[in-house]
Amino acid sequence: MATIAVNDMVHHQTSLELEQKDVFDYSKRSQWLRAAVLGANDGLVSTASLMMGVGAVKQDIRAMILTGFAGLVAGACSMAIGEFVSVYSQLDIEVAQIKRDFNRRDDVEAEVDDLPNPWQAAAASALAFSLGAMVPLLAASFIKPYKIRILVVAAAVTVALAVFGWLGAALGRAPILKSSTRVVVGGWMAMVITYGLTRLIGTKGVLH
Predict the structure, then answer these.
(1) SS3 196
(2) Taking a C-beta distance cutoff of 8 angstroms, is the pair 76, 43 a contact?
(3) Could you tell me which of 23, 32, 22, 25 has the C-alpha nearest to residue 168?
(4) Which portions of the chain are predicted below pLDDT 50?
(5) Between vectors from CA 41 to CA 182 and to CA 57, what angle results, nearest 5°?
(6) What integer pLDDT is reported at residue 56 of this predicted model?
(7) Where, by residue number, does the polypeptide cross the bilayer (predicted)?
(8) ∠ CA 183-87-182 to the nearest 5 degrees?
(9) Rounded distance, CA 55 to CA 190, Å?
(10) What is the C-alpha separation between 4 and 6, in angstroms, rounded?
(11) What is the pLDDT of residue 18?
């Protein structure tokens, strides 16, 4: 009986270990996933909003493209620097904590690979921002008629927002419909507000 009980315990422990190996900890994706999703959505929404705002008062395609390109470069640099500073601060805090634990001679084995990487986060954020910003730029680049250009940009941005929302939810095992809807509605609100306010200021002569 004792032998059977021991065998059952060993079998149960082995099963638990196998289950733990099979279960992926999605929280480990949080660092790069947050930077990538935030960067892509920010690049898409901010660049599209800038282009819509300029398009509200100036129908010239060249003005829209230059505005979008300037927004891409400025935004990618801003996202990269902001993410680098933020993650570097987090890294300093975690390293300081490891040193304190070591000085207290606690049984702590620091996993260096698990420490946040500022350069990786900055690069991922800048790249994701640029990829998102390219959507409205490419959508507007080859369409000269103003009204059609605005509609195409809006449609392309809507599809991209839905895709980014779905991708972020799928990778993080979050509700897909809820995440996609939130992202699309938020993006549309940003574009509508920017378009409306810029058109109001530009057409009502507030700046004259």
Answers:
(1) helix
(2) yes
(3) 32
(4) 2-10, 12-26
(5) 95
(6) 86
(7) 61-81, 121-143, 150-171, 183-202
(8) 10
(9) 15
(10) 5
(11) 44
User: Secondary structure of the chain: what % helix, strand, coil (to 5)?
Assistant: 85, 0, 15
- Which residue type is seen at 140? A
In the numeric block, which tokens belong to residue 50? 């800038």
Which residue type, as a one-letter code, is found at position 30? S
For 155, other C-beta atoms within 10 Å of its C-beta total 11
Please give the pLDDT value at position 165: 83
Long-range contacts of 14-19 (CB under 8 A, 24+ apart): none
- In this predicted structure, what is the pLDDT of residue 124? 83
Joined together, the tokens standing for residue 77 give 């640099």
On whether the CB atoms of residues 165 and 171 are closer than 8 A, the answer is no
Cα dist from 6 to 1, 9, 18, 105, 114, whole Å: 9, 5, 18, 36, 36
Q: What is the pLDDT of residue 16?
A: 46
What three-state secondary structure class fits 107? coil
pLDDT for position 92: 81
pTM value is 0.71
Q: Report which of 79, 78, 34, 52 is spatially closest to residue 171, judged by C-alpha positions.
A: 34
Predicted local confidence at residue 7, as pLDDT: 45
